User: Which sequence fits this backbone?
């Protein structure tokens, strides 16, 4: 039942048939959500962790004046709130597209980690990759220009969507608006729009309709100073 | 409080119409008029850059220069007698 999540975990760690069965059994319920729906809210108590089985979502923090900071974008196979297994949640998550969410009881996750070191190992690897993504975003917001920030984020999305099997050739569904990108990168919508127009005019990438279309991958990577090494794609643990 | 506007061209990558906004000969903000790049917001005025208490992550968009000045004056009035930026030595 946790198909995409298991597939994601298997990129990082080899699991025996029995261990895979444990992972498959983690999801006790599934829930379908439309685009723009709240998956969970900061501070909200729940006994379940949320696996993103299908669709795209994002984590965010809401400010008291109504503004928000988007923290990360997610693809199928991601665990949106592993933190909940251990402590309270200080961020929220919202769907970007219609999503299938798997609910995994936190007690079941903790039990699986306790009984199966390799499952715990895989979850560690997922967390480390998320940390690496946060570090890149921090570098971007602190030190990259708006132009490089947006190019880097789009490179990251393309790479993650490709790994999740969601790129069709050079295009993928990615219905993030300019406001989503602005809220992710600490930019105004006006600056975001200017940069997106420049990236399109230079023949690098286009956000058209609700799709992300790569026109020149190498050029886009150069614009964003993007090196996918931090995503540790496909590297299994020794 | 009086604000003085001085027309200027801004190298924003757009058409470039802008104004420098002064209070008491001090530059407090740069506003630019949004071009057709911004579709339904074309012709609106954008806070490209604020200085002192107007500096920060908020870049509002205004229907016209009058609305922009109302907003700028309100912000400046809120900080009368306070240091020009948070945590500044008094």
Assistant:
């Amino acid at each position: 039942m946790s198909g995409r999540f298991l597939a994601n975990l298997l990129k990082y760690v080899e699991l025996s048939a029995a261990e895979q069965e444990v992972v498959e059994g983690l999801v006790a319920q599934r829930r379908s959500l439309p685009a723009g729906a709240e998956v969970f809210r900061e501070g909200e108590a729940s006994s379940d962790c949320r696996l993103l089985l299908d669709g795209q979502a994002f984590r965010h923090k809401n400010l008291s004046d109504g503004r928000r900071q988007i923290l990360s974008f997610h693809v199928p196979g991601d665990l949106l709130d592993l933190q909940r297994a251990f402590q309270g949640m200080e961020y929220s998550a919202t769907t970007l597209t219609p999503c299938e969410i798997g609910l995994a009881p936190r007690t079941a996750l903790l039990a699986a980690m306790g009984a199966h070191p390799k499952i715990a190992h895989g979850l560690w690897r997922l967390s480390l990759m998320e940390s690496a993504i946060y570090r890149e975003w921090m570098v971007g917001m602190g030190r990259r220009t708006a132009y490089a920030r947006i190019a880097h984020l789009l490179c990251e999305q393309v790479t993650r969507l490709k790994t999740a099997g969601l790129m069709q050739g050079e295009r993928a569904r990615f219905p993030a608006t300019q406001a989503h990108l602005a809220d992710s990168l600490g930019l105004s919508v006006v600056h975001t729009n200017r940069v997106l127009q420049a990236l399109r005019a230079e023949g690098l990438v286009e956000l058209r309709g609700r799709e992300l279309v790569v026109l020149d991958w190498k050029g886009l990577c150069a614009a964003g100073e993007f090196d996918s090494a931090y995503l540790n794609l496909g590297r299994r643990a020794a | 409080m009086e604000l003085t506007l001085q027309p200027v061209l801004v190298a924003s990558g757009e058409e470039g119409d802008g104004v420098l906004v002064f209070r008491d000969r001090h530059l407090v903000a740069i506003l630019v008029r949004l071009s057709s790049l911004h579709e339904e917001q074309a012709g609106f005025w954008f806070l490209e850059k604020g200085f002192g208490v107007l500096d920060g992550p908020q870049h509002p968009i205004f229907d016209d220069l009058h609305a922009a000045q109302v907003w700028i004056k309100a912000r400046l009035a809120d900080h009368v007698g306070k240091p020009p930026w948070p945590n500044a030595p008094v």
